[in-house]
Amino acid sequence: MEMGSFDISVFLSFVSRLFSRVVLCLVLCFFLKDVQFVFAFQWFPMDQLLLNKGKALLVRTETVKIANSVLVQRIQQFSLTLIGRLMNPAIQRMDSLVVNLPMIWKIEDKVVGADLGQGLFQFNFDADEDLQSVLQNGPYHFDGWMISLVKWEPIISSTYPSAINFWVKVTGIPMHLWEVATLRAIGRKVGTICEIYEESGRFCVSVNGFNPLLFKLVVPFDTGDEIIVSLEYEKLMGFCEHCFRLTHEMKGCPELLKGSGDQVMENQSDKRGGLR
Ligand SMILES: [Zn+2]
Known about the structure:
This protein has 276 residues and is an alpha+beta fold. The chain has 3 domains: 2-51, no CATH class; 69-151, Alpha-Beta Plaits, CATH 3.30.70.330; 163-273, no CATH class. It contains 9 helices and 10 strands. Zinc ion binds next to loops. InterPro entries: At4g02000-like (IPR040256), DUF4283 (IPR025558), Zn_knuckle_CX2CX4HX4C (IPR025836).
């Protein structure tokens, strides 16, 4: 009898501990909103699981040491390389781009293109003058959508490259307010200014290709006056007419897909009538 009652208390204690553990796991599961992690908690560090929630397991390797001399050599090796990104990879054909862009540039025997995967590509040039000429004549589009194309730099970022240099023409500035300062204020709102041509009301600006393009701006002056200017992007091809991004057609716009049919129609008419 003594042995029996002792066993029951041990058993109850075990059940109690098990129950509290299960409750803890369920509570954590509720906050993480993913049942599969309940079973994984015992085996993997918490931060690793949170980083990779709902995806394949993310495992860290040992630290890799690369000598400075090797890094310098690599940077020199890619000094004649342009790196690019398809802004709408769902439509743009990478194979065709890698073959056809050198022909469009008329330097097919002096440049070698390669698909880097994930919508990225590179072109290795024989001569710096060809590379500079290609950069000067941008921006470029392919299959009706823009590409980002920049001189390669040792940058680690999932959004690199995304810069697109546009020439932008401004209209709507009254004659007496037609100053470099006005164009500069507008250009700074659009991106990073490369050049300003006051006489023609144009500026070159580097924009982040993942951000919505600005087509209208309100420019206030210290006199208390305000003007509304319109922007025209030269060589622009393909953008969503709802959110003004370069990455998708309007029918696939994530903002529209979020809403219901009725809301979608309302948003469209609002956006078209409003300022950007
Ligand atoms: Zn959109």
